[in-house]
């Protein structure tokens, strides 16, 4: 009788451990997912290999996407976030992500106004008009994981 009771307890423990691992991996929780926090509650989050989004953090593990396209590169200062993004089919995991012809976005972090998608030339003109500079931006790549991302 005692052996049967120990065996049942062991099976329950193993089943619980299996369920925990299954939940972790089925929710898309990956070791390579990360977040890069910026000013005014904005962040870039790598949700999975097909989704890197820019949004506002609205909870401990939640982001409200502002730009849902795949963020290839980003830059920011105290007033603006600059994005280079491409469209990605999140369901087609075998398709290579083409980063050659990105769309551009500009986010005013004080007013939450988003300009884009813009072509490269539209982005340059808009950046000069709004920010008042032609200075070259220091772009941060999202692949591999950027320094400072957690």
Write up what this structure looks like.
With 150 residues, the chain is an alpha+beta fold. It is built from two helices and nine strands, in the order H-E-E-E-E-E-E-E-E-H-E. A five-stranded antiparallel sheet has the order 8-7-6-5-9, covered by helices on one side. It has a four-stranded antiparallel sheet with strand order 1-2-3-4, with no helix packed on it. Mean pLDDT is 84; it is low at 13-29.
Short structural summary:
The protein is of the alpha+beta class. 25% of the residues lie in helices and 35% in strands. The strands form two sheets. The protein has a five-stranded antiparallel sheet with strand order 8-7-6-5-9, covered by helices on one side. The chain has a four-stranded antiparallel sheet with strand order 1-2-3-4, with no helix packed on it.
């Amino acid at each position: 009788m005692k052996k049967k009771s120990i065996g049942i307890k062991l099976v329950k423990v193993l089943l619980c451990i299996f369920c925990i691992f299954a939940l972790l991996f089925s929710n898309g929780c990956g070791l390579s997912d990360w977040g890069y926090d910026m000013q005014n509650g904005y962040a870039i989050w790598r949700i999975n290999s097909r989704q890197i989004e820019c949004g506002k953090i609205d909870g401990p593990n939640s982001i409200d996407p502002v730009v849902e396209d795949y963020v290839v590169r980003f830059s920011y200062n105290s007033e603006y976030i600059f994005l280079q993004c491409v469209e990605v089919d999140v369901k087609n995991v075998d398709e290579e992500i083409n980063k050659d012809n990105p769309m551009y976005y500009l986010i005013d972090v004080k007013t939450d106004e988003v300009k884009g998608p813009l072509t490269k030339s539209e982005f340059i003109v808009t950046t000069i008009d709004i920010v008042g500079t032609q200075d070259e931006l220091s772009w941060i790549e999202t692949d591999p994981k950027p320094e400072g991302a957690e």
